[in-house]
Amino acid sequence: MVKQTIQIFARIKPTKKIAGVFSVDDEEHGNTNLEFLIPHDLADGFVNNKKETYRFKFQKVFDQGAKQEDVFENIAKPVADSVLSGYNGTIFAYGQTGSGKTFTITGGAERYSDRGIIPRTLSYLFQQFQKDSTKVYTTHISYLEIYNECGYDLLDPRHEAARLEDLQKVSIMEDPEQNIHLKNLSSQQAANEEEALNLLFLGDTNRMIAETPMNQASTRSHCIFTIHVSSREPGSATVRHSKLHLVDLAGSERVGKTGVGGQLLTEAKYINLSLHYLEQVIIALSEKNRSHIPYRNSMMTSVLRDSLGGNCMTTMIATLSVEKRNIDESISTCRFAQRVALIKNEAVLNEELDPGLMIIRLKREILALKDELAMVTGEQRTDQLTEDELQKLEERMEVFLEDSDPEAALDVGADMRKIQHCFQKLKILVTERRSSPSSLRRGDKLSSPLPDSTLDVESDSTPQMKKLKELLQQRDNEITILVNMLKKEKKRAQDAVTQLSTSSNGHSLSQGSLGSSGTEPAEPSGRLFSGLQTRGSLAGDSPLHHRIGGEMSLGRQEAFEIFRRDHVDIITIEDNKALLKQRFAEAKALGEKVKLARVKVNELKAQIEQRRMQRAAHGVISSTVDLAEPDPVEEELRVHIEEEKKSYKATFGRLKGLKTEIEHLQLLLERAKVKLQRDFEVWWSEEAARLQPQEERSERSASENAWRTPAVSNTKSQKSNHKTREFDSSLSAVPSASDLRSFNPSHAPTSRESSARSHLESRTASTSSLRAPGKLVSPIPLTGDQQTDADILAFVQARQSLLQRKGGSANK
Ligand SMILES: Nc1ncnc2c1ncn2[C@@H]1O[C@H](COP(=O)(O)OP(=O)(O)OP(=O)(O)O)[C@@H](O)[C@H]1O
């Protein structure tokens, strides 16, 4: 058991704004002090009657310049190492909104170097698995989001999330031993780093898609990414299970300060409530002799029960913003961390016996005991030894006879049949030896036929005999060489077939043949991301336009293109695309190099083979060549092969590193794509809402207000209905094709459209003259085709408002 207090670290987010006065000083024995100075006269908005300086001690403080890599090396790597040894670990980030929790735990979306703790830890764990050949590792991943005290499975494979409520709900169950189980939380196996990263990405995408303007998931929910690792030494009956929770908590600011209302207030209350319960648990744990710890008060504390005062090595990262206006929140985060540092955890090695292996072991023991019992009681087994048993026995006897140790023992168990069999065999051998001492030499197989008696009868010393023996030896050598050649030829043919099938399968990077890969991104001039390789499970099932907006009409696509060009993220996207292209080119070059090295190695091998054949032929003819002597030419060829192999390995290693980077860049691009499209959907809805006549909007908002009261309802289902309806209403504001058609005077309406129109007209007749047609009639010619005209109108409207927006921002 390892007893350890929770380790606390602080990370300060870089700022360009005016910062408060603070200092970071390293202490002699490894800790770091963080001090805030708040002079009385500067304490704007902050009640500071007593103290001027606030000093907090952390294991380490990462100042503004700290890199993601430093954070991983100092914080996450030691925890990952203990997880590899079989201990549970937790790393949680706590701090106010925007202080860098998500950046620290998951990472930034812009650069590969911005990868956070989760992707780096996954990469590290899979590297360690590969290095350690003494154990077999298995990894499973789960990703839980807790929002307003409800759990959601972010990796649920059966649901496509367009809203948080679409995701599988997770509930907590407790067994009689008070162990917590999460019902409906899926746990997905990841065989390698790529699969694990895909799961992280899937979860993050679900989180992003499910978030609405009201629920900015990262801010208002807690997310727990868990890596479950099992390890076992082959043949051993013990298995180690450990888990690593990587937790991104909701923003910790106080309600009073945020000044929010309505749904946001409800959320803020929930967040504050769950963080308040977290604080209560932490206070209770830091008090001596406190027997009741109120874990059950909230879902988050229930899930993290082991991490807080239990079987876990836990680390907290306090994320701080040192901007002047945030100093009070930063001080309160530091205070919280100081309390957390008092909590003692007791981590135990999570080792258990594998029931399957235990059964095999016990069965074997039972058999041995039965044999022993039969021997002791004199009871004999009458059934014959099987072929397999006989062969094993012979092998054991051979090992025994070959062993030069005079004390060597022959262990065949307590089975009398086996003992008898061994005695019989030994008798035969001894008898043969007596009759002809030369007939049993070392290396003679027990099962081989007796030596040819004609050879034994003749004396070895006659010259004819000697010649014959030499000839025989020479033939033996030739045969061995030919058999080896045949085997190699066969292997080469097999390799060629494998290579052929690999290349026809499209050259996967992992096979080191990226050189001729067709996986490059298309030219950036194509449609956004169109040429990029789609990824894993996301490839087929979650193109965002299916998940949010449905198939895009032509007009909408055009509008999307314009929107995309002006989007703030487009520079990052283009940069990443360029970088990705560059990496692909590098990977391609490396792939070529790998291929060349492989060809070279094969050529050298062929040369060795040829050389051997030549030597063997020479030996047979002239007998001047001593085949037992090492051949210097072959030695030289071997040295070349080793060099080529080294270069192959080094290049292949670089290629693998590049592969990870490429995959990550692809993930970043996919994520940017999701964000871009989501932003577009929001903008599109706004534009559509603006398209509606003023009267209807006021009518609609009046009716919305009617069902919005009371603003905060009391039951959970009411709350979620409320949220769903708000979300639905924002989606329904997108103009449908028939809405647009009804505004087009040149279009002859169908009977269904006429009735819809007359319905609308009757609703607005008192206040509007024919639904403000002047605003919507397009000066551009229409085609008469319903769908095309609707698209044209949508496009014109979108472009106009974009131009207006652009004009507006240019005027500013
Ligand atoms: N150390 C850092 N270096 C560079 N940028 C950072 C750093 N920390 C945070 N950021 C940036 O600050 C912004 C807010 O960070 P982030 O989303 O991680 O905050 P958060 O604490 O998770 O907020 P929330 O509670 O809303 O989830 C992001 O744009 C992020 O990229």
Automatic annotation (TrEMBL):
Low complexity bias spans: 500-518
Full protein name: Kinesin-like protein
Compositional bias segments (type: Basic and acidic residues): 434-445, 691-702
Record-linked InterPro entries: KIF6/9_C, Kinesin-like_fam, Kinesin_motor_CS, Kinesin_motor_dom, Kinesin_motor_dom_sf, P-loop_NTPase
Polar residues biased stretches: 729-753
Record-annotated Kinesin motor domain positions: 5-343
Family per similarity comment: Belongs to the TRAFAC class myosin-kinesin ATPase superfamily. Kinesin family.
MF-aspect GO terms: ATP binding; microtubule binding; microtubule motor activity
Subcellular location: Cytoplasm, Cytoskeleton
Coiled coil: 359-403
Keywords: ATP-binding, Coiled coil, Cytoplasm, Cytoskeleton, Microtubule, Motor protein, Nucleotide-binding
GO biological process per UniProt: microtubule-based movement
Region entry Disordered, spans: 434-464, 493-531, 691-784
GO cellular component, one term: microtubule
Organism of derivation: Acipenser oxyrinchus oxyrinchus
Binding site for ATP: 95-102
